[in-house]
Fold:
Amino acid sequence: MTHAADTCDGLGESLPAPIVADLPEGVPALRTFYLYLSTGCNLHCRHCWITPTFVNGKPSPGECIDFELLKAAVAEAKPMGLSSVKLTGGEPVLHPEFLKISDFLTAENLRITMETNATLVDQDMARHLRETNFSFIAASLDSPDPGQHDRIRGVKGAFDAAVRGLSALVAAGFKPQIIMSVDRENVHQIEALIELAMSLGAGSVKFNPVVASGRGAEVHRKGQGLSFDELLEMTHRVRGPLQDRYSIYLSAMVPPALLTVRELLRHGGSDGGCCHVRNILGILGTGEMALCGIGRNIPELCFGMLGKDSLRRVWIEHPTLRRMRQDLAGQLPGVCGDCLHAGRCQTHCLAMNYEATGRLVNVSPLCAEAERRGQFPSTRRISCGREHPAA
Structure:
């Protein structure tokens, strides 16, 4: 199990080795599908950034990716470079043909990763997944306290069900990553969550700050989201003293320019916070092709519909994707254009950039705030390197 494959819509996620793709010059390979298998979820998390429909039972038709359309999309995308998929949602396990899809993707020799709340995973499912191409599974726990986790997740019993699911995955031979969505209510429980993760047999723990998108916007409106200072303090604490103390792999992502050199070099420099958005296409439960899950909330970041529009044509010709590629290949805006990490960071999370500014390729809100405060590190500027070659 590789720890480099952190799953947070691409941030920090490793991709398979490049392969030859049948595409026009200048069009990057389509290497990964983000499959939002269901638009529904069996939990109702107060912070979810893509606002899935709360499903008390099974999703209705039209809320899950159509299996036949998915098979056609894979067939169309493999000559374009497709070699991996990430299963997410909503809750991916809610898809009525989840195991069938897993077997199909394995037969197509695609590497599979997944984000799940783990509440629907039992021993039989975990053993079945272990026999397929699943290389990495991440599951959510937001508090070591069962009652608090259930309040955050909006369903009583969610904690116990998630622990059972995680235990089943571990028993089957997985080393799952645990993801904690962090705000002011649970930030003080980080160490206790790490210790719980270790006791469960997890392979890593990732701390995602609640973002002001989807339901998370209400968390921030109520003043419960982490401030700029709190977010950076949490990140440095996780990647510094807590990683020193605990043997389990810990991760918290901010743009690499805001990390210390020691934090950047940790784990062999593989955890530096980049998004491979140029090589990813999201497919929503509705069958819409999108940048990623942000298309659930922002329709203009949806590019077409499986079964109606050619996936190849969308990937090559859609104006939003073409503009994104041109902007990423050109002079990056603001402080990004003078940043030593620009080539890797690529303005960090384009979805959150768009949410905050209406532009995909724009200065990350975190780096913009650091620049506004005069806290963007001068040693990470190209101009500083020119003036002081030894910096």
About this structure: Residues 1-7, 9-13, 387-391 have pLDDT under 50 and may be disordered.
